[in-house]
Amino acid sequence: MIKKEEICEMRLIDSHTHLYSKEFEKDFDQVLQRARAAGVTKFFLPAIDSEVIEDMLRLEEKYPNEFFPMMGLHPCSVKENYGQELQIVEKYLSERSFVAVGEIGLDFYWDTTFKQQQFDAFHKQMELALQYHSPIVIHTRNGMQETIEAVKPFASRGLTGIFHCFGDNSETAKQIIDLGFLLGIGGVLTYKNANLGETLRDISLEHIVLETDAPYLSPVPYRGKRNESSYLTFIVQKLAEVKGVTVEEVAEITSANAEKIFGQ
């Protein structure tokens, strides 16, 4: 368990958190206070669709040195109106800078009705990322290899980013790293049957950023409950155990990686 004095010395970055979501309406101040106390200094906010933009930007306005928004259309939000949603994304990107285009990608877990539209939205947003010299943050579920193949031609043109919520095998990790992308590691690392620790054992920390994906995917011992950014300490602890290094080393390297990829 990470000691209190170790937390004080650590500087953590949550590279993927939805703290703007309704799940935090009633106790946001306490959630933020706990995160700060745990050493979390920066929070990177992925967009989902136009409905969350106002809440996301409100956090940035209130805490400009801590909260950094992205802009993008989540694959699960790709529906009949995805063209209009993409126009909103493009409008925001043309008007101001964002730390990344995200979260974008492919998700064929729940529904494949809009599979082709998901590919179209993904490709168009990767083009926008190149146009605005921005990294991307990728969400992929039940479509990892298809996602990697979609990214390849854009990576060859200089696109970089993060494969958020990585939980796959060593071969997949190598493909992602070879593209020049980082692995976003969160609560799944702490799950007993995930085998993610084995995958990460031989992967350099230089290729990893940490995330919570709050309010989703809480780490053990909070699995099944609402996630929050302070729980990043459980992910740091587990990754340090897996790698056989100190929690300070994990925190320092992964935080530097996040700042480099996002330019913040």
UniProtKB/TrEMBL annotation:
Which superkingdom heads the taxonomic lineage of this protein's source? Bacteria
**Cross-referenced PANTHER family:** D-AMINOACYL-TRNA DEACYLASE (PTHR46124), HYDROLASE TATD (PTHR46124:SF4)
GO CC term (a single one) = cytosol
What GO molecular functions are on record for this protein?
A: DNA nuclease activity; hydrolase activity, acting on ester bonds; metal ion binding
Residues at which a divalent metal cation 1 binds: 16, 18, 103, 213
Name the UniProt record assigns to this protein = TatD family hydrolase
Pfam annotation, one family: TatD_DNase
Enumerate the SUPFAM superfamilies for this protein. Answer: Metallo-dependent hydrolases
Keyword tags: Hydrolase, Metal-binding
- UniProt binding sites for a divalent metal cation 2: 139, 164
Report the source organism. Segetibacter aerophilus
The transmembrane residues are none
Coiled coil location: none
Which family, according to UniProt?
Answer: Belongs to the metallo-dependent hydrolases superfamily. TatD-type hydrolase family.
Q: Which InterPro entries match?
A: DNase_TatD-rel_CS, Metal_Hydrolase, TatD-like, TatD/YcfH-like
